[in-house]
Amino acid sequence: MTPHEKAKRELERLAPVAGNGLLHRRAFLRGGATLAGAMSAYRLVPSASAQKLADDPWSLAPGAAVPDYGVRSRFENKVVRTLSNPKAEPRTQHARTPHHLLNGTFTPNALHFVISHAGDPDIDPDKHRLVIHGLVKQPLVFTLDTLSRYPMVSRMAFVECGGNSAPMFSNEPIQASVQALHGLVSCSEWTGVPLSSLLEEAGIDAKAKWIVAEGADAPHLSRSVPLAKALDDAMIALYQNGERVMPGNGYPMRLLLPGWEGNMNIKWVRRLQVTDQPGMTFYEARTYAPILPGGKAYRFYFIQEVKSFITHPSPGLALSGPGFYEISGIAYSGNGRISKVMVSADGGQTWAQAALQGPVHSKAFTRFRVPWRWDGGPVVLQSRAWDEAGNMQPTRSELVAARGQTARPPAVTGFPSQHYNAITSWAIERGGEVRNVYA
Amino acid sequence: MTPHEKAKRELERLAPVAGNGLLHRRAFLRGGATLAGAMSAYRLVPSASAQKLADDPWSLAPGAAVPDYGVRSRFENKVVRTLSNPKAEPRTQHARTPHHLLNGTFTPNALHFVISHAGDPDIDPDKHRLVIHGLVKQPLVFTLDTLSRYPMVSRMAFVECGGNSAPMFSNEPIQASVQALHGLVSCSEWTGVPLSSLLEEAGIDAKAKWIVAEGADAPHLSRSVPLAKALDDAMIALYQNGERVMPGNGYPMRLLLPGWEGNMNIKWVRRLQVTDQPGMTFYEARTYAPILPGGKAYRFYFIQEVKSFITHPSPGLALSGPGFYEISGIAYSGNGRISKVMVSADGGQTWAQAALQGPVHSKAFTRFRVPWRWDGGPVVLQSRAWDEAGNMQPTRSELVAARGQTARPPAVTGFPSQHYNAITSWAIERGGEVRNVYA
User: Fold this and answer.
1) Cβ–Cβ of B246/A51 closer than 8 Å?
2) What is the mean pLDDT of residues B121-140?
3) What is the DSSP letter of A231?
4) Cα(B439)–Cα(A316) distance, rounded to whole angstroms?
5) Are residues A341 and A429 in the same domain?
């Protein structure tokens, strides 16, 4: 390649590949001369004296003692979950993940979303038992210690409440952060015992078709799980991101059903009853049987379908002026791996393919990224994901046509409020402010 | 396959593949009839009434309020780092990771090892600056905000102190936990800006060969890094396991050099000076230039070489009687991916191949696992790892022949005390107690 051809190719790499300044996803990968100057608005050229670096107070005296259990910087204390019921009144509590303040491919334990219908039980792990009974050859009881002798596996998996993103069904866009709109989904590495090992040891009766799983919390929350899922990739999870499972996520053990509705992933699990029919429990017969516009209801709507949203920028993270930014977000599918994410800056007219952070795990968060040069004018950002099973994230209008929408926020009207997986649109105004819009 | 052949094959799968009861790594994967009964010592057969499940106190009343920043169970409060200098006296502090109490493939932030030579500085992220200067076309200064506009990447990477496992050089085996022996290594997902992007924008002078990196801590700890590594996979890390980097690990930003000696991964990084020669700083000229038996020293010994150790069982985790267990541990290499881990239960006479938890990341922890049937007699457990570059973990006698050993613990004698990557051996006595031995 001649120097002229090389320069031309590098120029092309910095040319937008879609409307309103979206750049090629590899524009900044080890580009050599390409990057030089491109980001120059975002650094300060120091004077010679600045290179001496003035010593701030923390560079002039010893710092704090290293604690036995690390504590984050006090400057990060605002990075918290938002609580729907902070005084723990006798109703459901929601704690939502602040996706706009995080980065990477999974969620720290302290910030994993929690829905708790009667608070977090304070379980003594030495006294907790897991029983498997019903249509089995021999019922079994496990302690945490005996379970820990079984062969274990680790896997990344997202857990998402079926009601996550419920505000998106509202017929007017609700002005709220990505945390308020999409904060009931999180992703962890879970380590535990494959449920298939335990069921096979119990010996499954030929008539068995379902498992009814029950928690040790005060409501004894229970859900029915098809046996095929229990024998596929279900797990009794004992560790979350390397540590014991958090109290709000089921300490000392939870059922993990990768890719399936959060409520089914029974926390504080104490019983698995093998049956020939579903339990028709409260949560599957009423709460998680979403009503459709025609008056019928989805029953046993298990899968959390392919979905994505942009976390950076997003409402509350205003842009500080025209120039280069990275657009970044999260994609996931209960049907397997994310195969592609496209990003638009012109409300869906043109699209650029995003880079996917590898390795891409099945039924887990995939971070996507695309470089962008904002010219300062109004734009509408969208992301759209595909999964390896060939599913495409729908537009909001497509989803609403099938499911209906709500005149008021779903917290007031109740239904429809579940399994929203359609496109989210962020409008950016001239001043850099980001707003939720329907585009 | 006839039923007879199938039964024979399943029996073979439960037959040991190496001495003292090591089983095939896939013996318990979806084995159907194979597992039935194999683990029967580890569950209790309940009476019919036990299936009703007595309600413990936590199942009878609402639990605790869900907090905005999650807190682990009070029953886990003993899972902490051990501190070498808990009163923060004016010398180095070490905080070691409790590998025997964790599981999975990376380390929770609160338990990541820390070595701090003057405590953890309390840095205001809005005032912190990163300067790149020296042999560059234009010196640059970045704030955290301006750095955050650059394209980012995420990757798993271990960080290990060059002095990790120093007690293993002692000429008598020191009786201590895996935390005390190997606790100065941890693994995280790091998210940040490739250093190559920043250096390319600064414009590297043709004479440049090194980077001298300096921290904002009171000692202004500095190390020299070959330019080739800085342009390869080095990163200015802004996030650790999804959250901002922890104070003990460099908040608000650190240099990450995947696979290289921990001390070089400059925490609280504030300066990168591009030079034509190394800085010959204190840590590279004195502390991390290990002296060999002949009196010469290794200089610029960067790579943390292929290594593994068994975490379960390990000293302090006594076995509770004969029967099935999972042997599990951690393997990693600064040269790339782990390609194979072999486990022995007879002190290295015979070996069984361990299962590797996938996906296997380059220069990151790989969890290995192998099922085992302990007959109750004395055994010696060992693990040995290989990496994709073809390197094999050495035996302790091979390493000691090359590097020497210490008559007393290295904390007393000083050298040799670095880059121990040889095999660790755990002896298990008849009672189930686990001890560190040289075998």
Assistant:
1) no
2) 95
3) H
4) 60
5) yes
Residue B135 domain flag = no
Q: Are A72 and B123 in contact, with CB atoms under 8 Å apart?
A: no
Which three-class secondary structure state does DSSP give residue A167? helix
Q: How buried is A422 (Cβ within 10 angstroms: 0-12 exposed, 13-18 middle, 19+ buried)?
A: buried
CB atoms within 10 A of CB A319: 18
The verdict on residue A119 lying in a domain is: no
Residues A229 and A268 grouped into a single domain: yes
Residue A277 shares a structural domain with residue A424: no
| pLDDT attached to residue B295 | 78
Neighbours of A368 (CB within 10 A): 26
Sheet with B323-332, edge to edge strand ranges: B307-312, B323-332, B366-374, B355-356
pLDDT of residue B293: 75
**Complex prediction ipTM:** 0.94
Q: Across all residues in chain A, what is the average pLDDT?
A: 91
Q: Which of A50, A119, A138 sits opposite B63 (nearest CB)?
A: A119
Angstroms from A10 CA to nearest CA on chain B? 14
Per-residue pLDDT tens over the stretch B333-351: 999 999 999 999 999 999 9
For A167, the token pair is 């505000």
Helices (H) and strands (E) in chain B, counts: 8, 22
E-assigned strand segments in B217-287: 222-226, 235-240, 243-244, 254-256, 269-275
> A51 lies in a domain?
no
Same domain, yes or no, for A267 and A331? no
Please name the member of A33, A111, A146 whose beta carbon is closest to the beta carbon of B70.
A111
Could you list the residue range(s) of the whole structural domain that residue A364 is in? 307-437
Name the token pair of A246.
Answer: 């958090």
* Chain A positions in Cβ-Cβ contact with residue B76 (cut-off 8 Å): 243-244
Question: Any CB–CB contact under 8 A between B152 and chain A?
Answer: yes
Long-range contacts formed by A228-234: CB under 8 A, 24+ apart: A229/A257, A229/A260, A229/A302, A230/A195, A230/A196, A230/A199, A230/A272, A231/A195, A231/A196, A231/A199, A232/A196, A233/A155, A233/A194, A233/A257, A233/A258, A233/A363, A234/A194, A234/A195, A234/A196, A234/A258
Q: Count Cβ atoms below 10 Å from residue B48 Cβ, excluding itself.
A: 8
Reported as type and span, the H/E element at residue A402 is helix A396-403
Residues A317 and A436: their CA atoms lie apart, in Å, by 12
Residue B14 sits at the chain A interface (C-beta within 8 Å):
no
**Residue A109 located in a structural domain:** no
* Lookup result for tokens 């001239």: A430
Across-strand partners of B157? B188
CATH assignment of the domain containing A211: 3.90.420.10
Note whether A148 and A251 are same-domain residues: yes
Chain B contact for A14 (CB, 8 A cutoff): no
- pLDDT band, residue A31 (cuts 50/70/90): very low
Rounded to an integer, what distance in angstroms lies between the CA atom of residue A288 and that of residue A282? Answer: 9
Region of A45 on the Ramachandran plot (φ > 0 left; ψ -120 to 50 alpha; else beta):
beta
User: Same structural domain for residues A208 and A348?
Assistant: no
Residues 6 or more apart whose Cβ sits within 8 Å of residue B425: B347, B380, B381, B382, B396, B436, B437, B438, B439
Partner-chain residue, chosen from B39, B56, B119, that has the shortest CB–CB distance to A201 = B39
Q: Tell me: pLDDT of B32 over 80.
A: no
Residue B191 CA to residue B151 CA, distance in Å, equals 10
Counted domains in chain B: 1
DSSP structure string for A331-399: EE-TTS-EEEEEEESBTTSS-EEPEEPSSPPTTS-EEEEEEEEE-SS-EEEEEEEEETTS-BPPPHHHH
The residue-averaged pLDDT of A247-260 equals 98
**Three-state secondary structure call for residue B404:** coil
* CB contact at 8 A, A359 and A7: no
Nearest CA in chain B to A324: B149
Q: Find residues 289-328 of chain A whose CB sits inside 8 Å of chain B.
A: 320, 323-326, 328
Task: Give me B343's structure tokens.
Answer: 């486990």
CATH assignment of the domain containing B326: 2.60.40.650
